[in-house]
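Cross-check.
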Amino acid sequence: MAGAVTYNVFQHGGDPAILCAVPNDKPVPAFISGPAWSFERAIAVGKDPIEGFRPRLAVAAESLNGFYLFLAFRRAFHDPWIVAPAAEPLAA
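Predicted model, tokenized:
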């Protein structure tokens, strides 16, 4: 990549493993402005690594639609809301 790119990263409120990166020089997509999404942080490619973020895929995705959706797998499997509920005891 020619210059350093900074992305604004947004997190989905219903599933913290779903993230959307938008280059800071592009408009934020309309679906991000809804209540389901919140700003997490800005990242500079090559300086601020974030799990699941792939710079080459981000460039390809943002050239097609202006944003890059990605998944942070460790968040998906380490958040308490994902733990399966305990099985109910069988009736005797």
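The radius of gyration is 17 Å. Residues 55-65 form the longest helix (11 residues). Passed to J.P. for a second look.
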